[in-house]
C-alpha cells in the first residue's frame, strides 16, 4: 500500500508500527462505504514538518482513509483519555480532510486501540500485541454509552441514521461478548436476539444498497434504548 510506504518514509526510524484495523482487517469492508483504518505508532511524537507531510500524503491517496498516529508510550499504556498525536481522515472522497493535531485527551481513541490490538494486522513494523497495551473493556463500553446518550437526541438525523444504529449494535455486542465486530455482523447478532428492532433492518438496507432508504426515528430510539440497557447490565 503506497500510503503505508509514505508513512514509513516520513516517520523514519521513529516508526514502531503501522497497523491496519477496522472492517478491512476484521471483515465486512465495503469499498464505497468503509474507511481504511490505519494506526501508526511512533517514538517520541511528530515534528510539525512530519505532520504536514502526513496530511499531504493522505490528501494524495485514493479512497476513504482514517489515519491516526499515537506515541509509543500512549500505545503501550493506554489511559481513559489517551493523547492523540495526529488524526487525518477523509470519509467522503469529495470532502475536505478532517485533521486533528496533538489532542491531549481523545477518549474515542480507546475503541481504535482496542480494535487494533484485537484484530489488527501490521503492514509495517512490529505486530499489534508488541506495541499496543490492553484497553480495559469497561473503558470502551463507557465511551460507547456516552455516544448512545448523544445519539438519543439525534434520532431525526437522517443522514447519520444507519451509522448510529449499526454502531449501537457494535457497542451492544462488545459490551455483552467483549468482541469487536463489523457493522453488518453486529446488526445480525442484534436481530437474532431482538428481531422486533425494525430500525436495524432499515439501517442495514440503507448501508448496504439503498442510501436513500428511510430509518424510522422512533425505531432508532428503540435500538439506542435497548443498547443502553444491555451495556448497563453487561458488567463490563
UniProtKB/TrEMBL annotation:
Domain of life: Bacteria
Domain Adenylyltransferase AadA C-terminal: 131-209
Record's keyword terms, sorted: Transferase
Domain Polymerase nucleotidyl transferase: from-to ranges: 3-47
Molecular-function GO terms, alphabetical: nucleotidyltransferase activity
Any one Pfam family match given in the protein's UniProt record, by short name: NTP_transf_2
Protein name (record): Aminoglycoside nucleotidyltransferase ANT9
Organism: Paractinoplanes rishiriensis
Organism taxonomic ancestry: Bacteria, Bacillati, Actinomycetota, Actinomycetes, Micromonosporales
Amino acid at each position: 500500500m503506497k500510503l503505508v510506504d509514505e508513512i514509513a518514509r516520513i516517520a523514519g526510524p521513529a516508526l514502531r508500527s503501522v497497523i491496519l484495523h477496522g472492517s478491512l482487517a476484521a471483515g465486512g469492508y465495503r469499498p464505497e462505504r468503509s474507511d481504511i483504518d490505519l494506526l501508526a505508532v511512533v517514538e517520541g511524537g511528530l515534528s510539525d514538518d512530519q505532520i504536514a507531510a502526513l496530511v499531504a500524503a493522505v490528501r494524495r491517496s485514493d479512497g476513504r482513509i482514517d489515519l491516526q498516529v499515537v506515541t509509543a508510550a500512549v500505545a503501550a499504556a493506554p489511559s481513559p483519555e489517551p493523547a492523540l498525536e495526529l488524526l487525518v481522515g477523509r470519509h467522503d472522497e469529495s470532502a475536505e480532510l478532517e485533521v486533528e493535531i496533538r489532542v491531549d485527551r481523545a477518549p474515542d481513541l480507546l475503541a481504535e486501540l482496542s480494535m487494533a490490538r484485537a484484530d489488527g494486522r501490521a503492514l509495517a513494523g512490529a505486530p499489534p500485541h508488541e506495541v499496543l497495551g490492553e484497553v480495559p473493556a469497561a473503558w470502551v463500553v463507557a465511551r460507547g454509552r456516552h455516544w448512545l446518550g448523544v445519539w438519543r437526541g439525534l434520532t431525526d438525523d437522517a443522514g447519520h441514521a444507519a451509522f448510529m444504529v449499526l454502531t449501537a449494535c457494535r457497542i451492544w455486542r462488545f459490551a455483552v461478548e467483549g468482541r469487536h465486530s463489523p457493522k453488518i455482523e453486529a446488526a445480525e447478532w442484534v436481530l437474532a436476539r431482538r428481531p422486533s428492532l425494525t430500525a436495524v433492518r432499515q439501517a442495514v438496507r440503507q448501508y448496504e444498497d439503498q442510501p436513500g432508504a428511510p430509518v424510522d426515528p422512533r425505531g432508532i430510539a428503540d435500538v439506542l434504548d435497548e443498547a443502553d440497557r444491555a451495556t448497563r447490565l453487561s458488567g463490563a
